[in-house]
Structures are given as structure tokens and as C-alpha cells.
Amino acid sequence: MSKHMKRLVAPKSWGIPRKTSTWVSKPSPGPHATESSVPMALVLRDMLRVCDNLREARHILSTRGVLIDGRIVTDEKFPVGLMDTITISKTGQNYRMLLDTHGRMKLTTISPDEAKVKLVRIQNKTIVRNGVFQLNLHDGRNILIPKNQYKTGDVLKIELPSQKILKQIPLKEGSLALLVAGSHPGSLVTVESFTVKRGSAQNLVGFREGFSTTWDNVFVVGEKTPEIKMLEGSAL
């Protein structure tokens, strides 16, 4: 696997200029896939604009003053993905990575209190030793629970960095959801139905806005109102 990436083939979700130079930082293997994350260096240089080049980004990270989800990050290629929180200790600023209506990764400024919580989607569940259930989450996290009380597709509000579960947000009729892929990325919609398909077909989620999509494109963010601050203009 190549450790390098040309700007021309960088994911569209990065939203970077294509012809300013030949190469661009490629995310390291980590909690998010390349297509759904942005390397830490690009976050500092191109999104936050706290530095002018990769060398300065490396220096900022070497001071151990940049935290992702409450943990110090020093790798300039660390992948920052959906719902991740970023804290810059020196300036006291906090941000959350979200998705705009063009499918591009965008940061929104959040309060210090909101930086201590995160929404994570349950991708699947497994049973480990002694019958303990393991929740496998969208950002690579795994949480162990004593009994099977959550469903795949539900979203959990967790405390950072302890991973303590604060609230369950179920994927059900009336829930407010953020679309993370498909024809309407970055849109806030209201769930109307959930259809379970047999075999290998993807389960479908229908919306009051008059269309449907597969369940893996749906990220529930609240039951009536969002549990976190969203980007302006996210409504369909």
C-alpha cells in the first residue's frame, strides 16, 4: 500500500485545491477510512489555518497541545473523521468535524463542555469471552456492555475520553438524522420508516422528506432536536 497520495486523486470530501502542488498528506491507518477522514496536517493548515505548511503543522503537534476526542495526537497523518472533536490547548478553541451539504468535511466551533461528548454509531455487535457484548462503533471504538440492550444503527452519546455511555439515540420513526453519504450528504432529515431486507440487501430507511436510502448512510443525531451543534444550513 502506497504511503503517498497525489492531490488529483484525494477524496472529494477533503475539499482541497487540486492543482496547487503534486502531493498531499495521506491519512495513516486508524479509526476512519481515507475516504471519510482528513489527515491532521490538513486540518491544521487548510481548515483551521493555524500554520502555513507541513513543517509548521509538525511543530504544533510536537508541542502535544492538539487533542482529538480528549487524547493527545502527534501524528500529522492521523485521520480525523465524522463527529471527532479537536481541541487546541494554546488557543482554547474546540471544534467538531461534520459534513456539509456538498459532502465535504467541515469544522464547526463548539464549547468546551460540548467537546467532552461525542456521538458514535453502532456499526455491529459481537459476543466476546464470558458472554459479554462488544459494540463496534463507526470511529473504530469498541465498548463492552454486560447485556444486549442496543441495536445496530443506533447512536450513543458518550463522554470523552472515558467512553462512558450517557444516552442512547435510537434509529426509529421521528428521529432526526444526518445523512453521511448518498444523494443528500450533510442533510438533516426525519426518519419515517425502517424496512428490514432479507438476504444480502441493505436495510432501507425512509424519510418524511419523500425519499429513502440504505441504513449505513444514516447517522441519528437526536430524537426531536440535535444532541450536538450542527453546521448551519444542514436542513434539507
List the helices and strands and how they pair.
Layout lengths: L4 E2 L16 E2 L12 E3 H8 L6 H9 L3 E3 L2 E2 L6 E3 L3 E4 L4 E7 L5 E6 L6 E11 L5 E5 L4 E4 L9 E5 L5 E5 L6 E4 L8 E8 L8 E4 L4 E3 L3 E5 L14
How would you sum up this structure, described in words?
- By secondary structure, the chain is mainly beta.
- The protein has 3 domains: 5-112, RNA-binding S4 domain (Structural Genomics Hypothetical 15.5 Kd Protein In mrcA-pckA Intergenic Region, Chain A, Roll), CATH 3.10.290; 116-169, Beta Barrel (OB fold (Dihydrolipoamide Acetyltransferase, E2P)), CATH 2.40.50; 176-222, SH3 type barrels, CATH 2.30.30.
- Helix content is 7%, strand content 36%.
- It is built from 2 helices and 19 strands.
- The chain has helices at residues 40-47, 54-62; strands at 5-6, 23-24, 37-39, 66-68, 71-72, 79-81, 85-88, 93-99, 105-110, 117-127, 133-137, 142-145, 155-159, 165-169, 176-179, 188-195, 204-207, 212-214, 218-222.
- The strands form 5 sheets. It has a 5-stranded antiparallel sheet, with no helix packed on it.
- A hairpin with a 5-residue loop joins strand 10 (117-127) and strand 11.
- The longest helix is centred in the first third of the chain and has 9 residues, at 54-62.
- The chain is globular and about 50 Å long.
- The termini are far apart.
- The relative contact order is 0.12.
- The model has no long low-confidence stretch (mean pLDDT 91).
